[in-house]
TrEMBL record:
Leader peptide range in chain numbering: 1-28
Protein name: M14 family metallopeptidase
Top-level taxon of origin: Bacteria
Family statement drawn from the similarity comment of this UniProt entry: Belongs to the peptidase M14 family.
SUPFAM superfamilies xrefs: Zn-dependent exopeptidases
Every Peptidase M14 domain range: 48-329
Protein keywords: Hydrolase, Metal-binding, Metalloprotease, Protease, Signal, Zinc
InterPro entries referenced in this protein's UniProt entry, alphabetically: CARBOXYPEPT_ZN_1 (IPR057246), Peptidase_M14 (IPR000834)
One Pfam family here: Peptidase_M14
Amino acid sequence: MKSKVLTAIVSGVLLLSGTFLTGNTVLAGDNGPSGPNYGGNETIKNERLHSYDEMVEFLEKADKRSEALELEVYGQSVQGRDLYLANFGIDEDNPTILFLTQQHGNETLTTEGALQVIKHLTSNGKQVQEILNNVNVLIAPRLNVDGAEGDVNFSLEDYVAGTHTRYNANGVDLNRDHVERNQPETKALHQNVLQKYQPDYMIDLHHQGTQTTLGDTGELVSGSILYPTNENVDPEVREQSKQLGAVVYNAIDSKGYGLISKYPGSNKPTISRNGLALEYGIATLLLEVRGMADHWYEDYVLGQKSNGYLIQQVVTAMEASLKALADGSIQSADTSFWETLPESNYSGE
Ligand SMILES: [Zn+2]
């Protein structure tokens, strides 16, 4: 794994001095971290998000447009929906990163951000080519395709919007199924993506509640991050995970809207952040984005007004990771910030 990364440094270091895939800067303020919540007052308009059919159409169009993209179906969900992997090519001399979104069907903006990155990567810009020449990019958008459609074998009556569920169609939390892999979604991800392509890095993209704060400051965060915390994870893998976290932290923190806390996550191997690091030696990072499209806790649900900056936060995290892998700068990322990064606190009821 190391040698691949080192090769990428040598070949990529001079290529990427400019900005890659520049996004629009979104200013803090009304739409910033202390901006509006759903608060029970706003109509939830989840139809603005990509439905499954719209996502598939988007991916197929991108596939047609791009020589670099190989769109794969790597499995099927409980309800028979195809699971898609956007594969931008595997060169064994390059490091491989996997971006995984929406293991929880109600955590939607992660996929919206991933689709934007896929679109960027299918454009023929010079900087995109330099990225793709130096990094193997795998993007698996929306693992929980059934929950994201509300097409599940249980009632949604407790959910605020009644459109998206955390669990898959069998009522299972896919991000607690990474050891046993009893569900078709997790089984397919492990067999046909993780074991087949053996990524070096993985970012697992989620959403958390709306009221998470930076330590005891009372300031609402835009997101939270964490590396694999299970004590049996190889220390070198954990350090590489912390470096990936440093890249993401620095990129988001430099944005006006960005405020990041340390996620107080569990050490269980059933969670992908821990399980993939343990089983495959993948350097993993969890990124939790503020607010969900739907939940049974009203307090967790965010309306649409913050979607712009939250999607941008996902794009920023993904692009910064690609750039740091392509130019090798991830190898010198300073991980000391983790020691002082305040843990999440919670200002909700
Ligand atoms: Zn989640």
